[in-house]
Amino acid sequence: MSISAKTERILFVGFEGLQMLDLVGPADVFSIASMRAHGRYAVHYVGTRASVRASNGLVFQLEKLPKVRSSDTIIIPGGMARSVFNAMADQALLNWLTDAAAQVHRVASICSGAFVLARLGLLENKRAVTHWSAADRLAKTAPNIKIEKDAIFVEDGKIWTSAGVTTGIDLALAMVRRDIDETTALQIARDIVVHVIRPGNQSQYSAPLMLQKNAGPNLDRLIPWLESRLSETTSVADMAMEVGLSERQFHRQCLLQFGRTPAKLALELKLDHARNFLQEDQIPIATISKICGFSDSAAFSKAFKKQFAISPAMFRNHWKSDGVT
């Protein structure tokens, strides 16, 4: 990988107890992008200590806090509350961040890293997001922040924030899409086996997660199992057998726990995934209908329109015309 004057540095801020996935997910996106785009990025891990231990026990080395450039991107990962607040008490780090934020191209936080940005005043009167479990606390900490609780990432000027953990990957892919092009971002998504590039305003609470949240112990594995066989035809008998219940018991439990019949439940999961796929222009609608287990495009279109009151083609066009990125 060549390093040139056009290489943009991605500076990940390390601190004791950080959430490792907040860091390595986005870091891999930029690293792969640099391999595909001939040294476009140089990833660095920086901090006030020589090494830190992540919350999962992994110890890794940090570089000294550098003198920043106008093309740099600073990314602050999250961590457990105590770890983040300890980082916020590191005056040397805060001083560097304050000076650097005024000079760099953009500053981003992953998950509870948003609390660091709030502490620096960088989120004042800005739209932002953090992990759903910390949103109320952030709102109390800094009441002038316009928190978008359901978003997975938010861009407001040069400040980017994300909901955390895997959404850091979504944020990084969006940056690559902005910096390089959509083709490269899609190639990286395929490299790391992300099934779709999610827009920032997509809810943190996906339909599968919302359904699984309501599942009792006898149906807790149903949603992941259905998700693993989207392209297949799955009968009520198949579902009942998977969870070890009779069809009658299964039907009753499905209505009780999900408020849906088994057939409706399976259909909604297929349509939720179809809606994600429709956001990508490159995937033909006929292909999406097959991926999501419909017999043909007509059946898919009929079911989609009944669920969302709009055809798949109109949904795709509407999504594009809204300029969502």
From TrEMBL:
Pfam families: DJ-1_PfpI, HTH_18. Keywords: DNA-binding, Transcription, Transcription regulation. Residues 220-318 form the HTH araC/xylS-type domain. It comes from the Bacteria. The keyword Transmembrane does not apply. InterPro entries: Class_I_gatase-like (IPR029062), DJ-1/PfpI (IPR002818), Homeodomain-like_sf (IPR009057), HTH_AraC (IPR018060), INH-QAR (IPR052158), Tscrpt_reg_AraC-type_HTH (IPR020449). The keyword Transcription applies. This is GlxA family transcriptional regulator. The lineage of its organism: Bacteria, Pseudomonadati, Pseudomonadota, Alphaproteobacteria, Sphingomonadales.
